[in-house]
């Protein structure tokens, strides 16, 4: 007869069962994301037969217009949405966890404002007109702005506290946005080129531009996923985290670096896309709870799923014209976020 001490505790059984359930749910979401990738390649403003889509991927013919649309337009667009979505989802979950602020989004560190300013300066000073040229300037601007925000927020005895980071981010963002607006108001040609990047879009993305930020994106993903346990400890409170031996300052620094790299990469290749990094972590938290070991992977899958579906909707809703994905995500994300905010328990960290 089995003794009581040999049977696993009920809490352990529940924990294992929950782990299996979450793992199965994540696999289902990955399958749905794979379907969204296929949908993004197959559906668009131009009708392309399913057979032609397969032939374009397996036996590309540059003389076939349908093949050119699939390989040169839709495939890079889908890859951009996939990578930008992963970056924004992880960045949003990390910044909300490290600041313990449910209303925080990746732009809180000034990355969008910094990227926008450097792109504007690149257009004005160097006459850049291609997305490939925007990538490095956008990434550099995001990195510089994020570094400045973290440096300002670190001043004082307590270091980079969540409140100081939020205030520093708001101040730096306002300052950079003012400079950007000043340049745009005095240069009509720059404004005409910048507005297409500013709205946030996956259209016309060069695979070379995606390849340029891919190494940085990979580093950001590793940093973000590696911060799961430390974010769980930090969520217990700074004092308890220190008592458990965690270096709170180092944790914040690594998390801020992950957000800067991830959001800088996404902004550089797709422009500033709103509501993805803000809303998706809350949806993931409804499924997984506060455990970042599950929250981060779920956010990394849900965000590109949302971005790709929004992009497909933007292609077909006004055929033959298109809506930029940044507009569609705002239309989808805003009502969802309002509902989440009204359910107070779901947004407490």
From TrEMBL:
<feature type="transmembrane region" description="Helical">
    <location>
        <begin position="209"/>
        <end position="228"/>
    </location>
</feature>
<dbReference type="InterPro" id="IPR037294">
    <property type="entry name" value="ABC_BtuC-like"/>
</dbReference>
<keyword id="KW-1003">Cell membrane</keyword>
<feature type="transmembrane region" description="Helical">
    <location>
        <begin position="295"/>
        <end position="314"/>
    </location>
</feature>
<keyword id="KW-0813">Transport</keyword>
<feature type="transmembrane region" description="Helical">
    <location>
        <begin position="134"/>
        <end position="153"/>
    </location>
</feature>
<keyword id="KW-0472">Membrane</keyword>
<feature type="transmembrane region" description="Helical">
    <location>
        <begin position="107"/>
        <end position="128"/>
    </location>
</feature>
<dbReference type="Pfam" id="PF01032">
    <property type="entry name" value="FecCD"/>
</dbReference>
<keyword id="KW-1133">Transmembrane helix</keyword>
<protein>
    <submittedName>
        <fullName>FecCD family ABC transporter permease</fullName>
    </submittedName>
</protein>
<keyword id="KW-0812">Transmembrane</keyword>
<feature type="transmembrane region" description="Helical">
    <location>
        <begin position="321"/>
        <end position="341"/>
    </location>
</feature>
<dbReference type="InterPro" id="IPR000522">
    <property type="entry name" value="ABC_transptr_permease_BtuC"/>
</dbReference>
<comment type="similarity">
    <text>Belongs to the binding-protein-dependent transport system permease family. FecCD subfamily.</text>
</comment>
<feature type="transmembrane region" description="Helical">
    <location>
        <begin position="165"/>
        <end position="185"/>
    </location>
</feature>
<feature type="transmembrane region" description="Helical">
    <location>
        <begin position="20"/>
        <end position="45"/>
    </location>
</feature>
<feature type="transmembrane region" description="Helical">
    <location>
        <begin position="249"/>
        <end position="275"/>
    </location>
</feature>
<feature type="transmembrane region" description="Helical">
    <location>
        <begin position="78"/>
        <end position="95"/>
    </location>
</feature>
């Amino acid at each position: 007869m089995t003794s009581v001490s040999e049977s696993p505790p009920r809490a352990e059984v529940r924990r294992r069962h929950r782990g299996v359930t979450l793992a199965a749910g994540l696999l289902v979401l990955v399958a749905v994301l794979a379907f969204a990738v296929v949908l993004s390649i197959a559906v668009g403003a131009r009708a392309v037969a399913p057979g032609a889509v397969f032939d374009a991927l397996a036996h590309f013919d540059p003389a076939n217009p349908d093949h050119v649309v699939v390989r040169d337009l839709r495939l890079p667009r889908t890859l951009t949405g996939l990578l930008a979505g992963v970056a924004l989802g992880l960045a949003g979950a990390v910044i909300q966890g490290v600041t313990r602020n449910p209303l925080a989004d990746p732009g809180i560190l000034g990355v969008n404002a910094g990227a926008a300013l450097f792109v504007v300066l690149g257009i004005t000073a160097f006459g850049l007109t291609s997305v490939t040229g925007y990538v490095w300037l956008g990434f550099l601007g995001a990195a510089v702005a994020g570094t400045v925000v973290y440096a300002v927020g670190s001043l004082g005895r307590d270091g980079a506290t969540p409140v100081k980071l939020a205030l520093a981010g708001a101040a730096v963002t306002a300052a950079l946005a003012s400079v950007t607006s000043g340049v745009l108001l005095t240069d009509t040609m720059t404004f005409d080129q910048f507005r297409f990047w500013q709205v946030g879009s996956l259209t016309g993305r060069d695979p070379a531009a995606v390849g340029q930020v891919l190494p940085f994106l990979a580093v950001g993903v590793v940093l973000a996923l590696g911060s799961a346990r430390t974010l769980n400890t930090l969520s217990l409170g700074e004092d308890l985290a220190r008592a458990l031996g965690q270096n709170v300052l180092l944790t914040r620094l690594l998390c801020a670096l992950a957000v800067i790299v991830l959001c800088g990469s996404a902004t550089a290749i797709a422009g500033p896309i709103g509501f993805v990094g803000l809303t998706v972590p809350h949806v993931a938290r409804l499924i997984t709870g506060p455990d970042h070991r599950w929250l981060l992977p779920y956010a990394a899958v849900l965000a590109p799923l949302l971005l790709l579906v929004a992009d497909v909707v933007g292609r077909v809703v006004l055929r033959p014209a298109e809506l930029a994905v940044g507009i569609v995500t705002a239309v989808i994300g805003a009502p969802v976020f309002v509902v989440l905010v009204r359910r107070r328990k779901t947004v407490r960290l």
